[in-house]
């Protein structure tokens, strides 16, 4: 059984380094972050078809209003502008996601230690997600066409609680093999203890 790291719950100390969260016998075996280009283009292509259809419908409606050459009173024009500004919220959200994608990719870090997987996300504050090997129920790799272009992939780690994704990482098969090796060791030790 590992010793507890006394710094883990020290709330007065600022967490500047992930090593401050590790147990004394825990070691970082791999660390990585998303490929910035792949991360951005994944966000760009995500829901792009929906955004294009949404824009075409709104632009067509606006063009029909303008082409009708009907003069609208000022309050109606203001109401129409407000309506379309609100109606285009899905497009604004998509654009905001693109602007934030670059920053998000810089703030997302992945760690595989001798005891768990750690995902550190400092996009909004500092969120640290830990998945201990004994909680992992499955590991899957997904490599899309875009991922192939950048030689990256996504590793889906499903635990008893939820699923976390190591997005757009280099060498996803090697990372998966490393995880499966540790999960296999854990299961072997568990089976020995059970007998």
Name of the level-1 CATH class of the largest domain: Mainly Beta
Give the CA-CA distance, first to last residue.
19 Å
Contiguous uncertain segments of 5+ residues = 190-195
Please give the count of helices.
Answer: 6
What is the spatial order of strands in the main beta sheet?
A: 1-2-3-4
CATH architecture of the largest domain: Roll
Radius of gyration: 24 Å
Number of strands: 7
Shape estimate: elongated
Strand content: 15-25%
CATH superfamily of the largest domain: Pleckstrin-homology domain (PH domain)/Phosphotyrosine-binding domain (PTB)
Question: What structural class results from the helix and strand content?
Answer: alpha+beta
Helix content: 40-55%
Transmembrane segments: 48-68, 74-99
Keywords: Coiled coil, Membrane, Transmembrane, Transmembrane helix
InterPro entries: YdbS-like_PH (IPR005182)
Protein name: PH domain-containing protein
Explain this structure:
The chain is an alpha+beta fold and 195 residues long. The chain folds into 2 domains: 42-99; 107-194, PH-domain like (Roll), CATH 2.30.29. The protein contains 6 helices and 7 strands. The strands form 2 sheets. Strands 1-2-3-4 form a 4-stranded antiparallel beta sheet. Strands 5-6-7 form a 3-stranded antiparallel beta sheet. Helix 1 packs antiparallel against helix 4 (89-107). The radius of gyration is 24 Å and the shape is elongated. 15% of the residues are buried. The model is unreliable at 190-195 (pLDDT under 50).
